Amino acid sequence: MNYALYINGIFESVLTEIVTAQKNNDNLICYLQPYKSHKINWKNSVLPTEQNPITLYISTTDSLPIVTYKAKIVGWENKNEINEARREFLDNHIMKFQKGETEIYEKGVNLISIIELQKVQIPLSVQNFTKIDDNKPLKTRTRAGGWSYVNTLPNWVNESKESIFADDFNKSINSEIEESFKDSNETRENRLKTASKKPEIIQIIQRGFRRNPDVIITVLKRANGVCEKCNQNAPFKRAKDNSPYLEVHHKIMLSEDGEDTVDNAIAVCPNCHKELHYGVRNNEI
């Protein structure tokens, strides 16, 4: 399914117990019992199954603003509708694999079946997740309980084993490039023979700015398809709407405390934009 469920505030002791049990027992299904008293309304009334699971993101009661666990939901049951035989099976299962929970307790109505519970390599702020109904970031809650449907994160987020700030990454790679330039061709060729062909996946943390779309559109309309630096026509047209492709550049960069205003912005072609950022600075703009 192309969406995920976020649950806010599960006891870490419950999660660590499940992680251990599933690690020692292949394909083991375990159970979560959120405290909320109302039922989860599954999208389009389609319940998750082992053949069609839903990704689950979890924050713990001790760290509500951070998602630290993920799993796959493969089933759901209303605890009020479980028959005696099923309840006996579940109680025995929980006593064996989730001893801290003891049994299927009365509080709450949702019984969620999960597999592949794991602690994420790099914990993420709840605000990194967007709600599927309006694509707005989740807000951090101050108490446990509840859930939201969110957009699924790309796989590379969970594959990353290292997190690094963008400035530190750029300094590191630029330093390595300089060292490589100093080496002989033979030295580089020898390293290339044993180098991995697949780069390691990392997560790069970078500060960004929430740009004003009205500034962007006003500046692009002012330019009318002509680069405001080199005065040449835009080099190509956008595939999505056939409009001239120009990029909006801030004269005083936002990272240098520049304003996100029409007066502080110009529309430029990609080549001029690169020159403005990485070329020799001048006073043309």
How much helix, percentage-wise, in residues? 25-40%
- Tell me the series of helices and strands, N- to C-terminal: EHEEEHEEHEHHEHEEH
Number of helices: 7
**Backbone shape:** elongated
Label the structural class. Answer: alpha+beta
The domain count comes to 3
Number of strands: 10
Spatial extent as radius of gyration:
26 Å
Mean pLDDT: 90
Largest sheet: 6 strands, mixed
Report the portion of residues in β strands.
15-25%
Major sheet: order of its strands?
Answer: 2-5-4-3-1-6
Q: Which ranges are low-confidence, i.e. pLDDT below 50, for 5 or more consecutive residues?
A: none
Terminal CA distance reads 49 Å
Structure write-up:
The chain is α+β, with helices and mostly antiparallel strands. It folds into three domains: 4-158; 164-205, no CATH class; 213-278, no CATH class. Helices cover 28% and strands 24% of the residues. The strands form three sheets. A six-stranded mixed β-sheet has the order 2-5-4-3-1-6. Strand 3 and strand 4 form a beta hairpin. The longest helix has 17 residues, at 166-182. It is elongated and about 80 Å long.
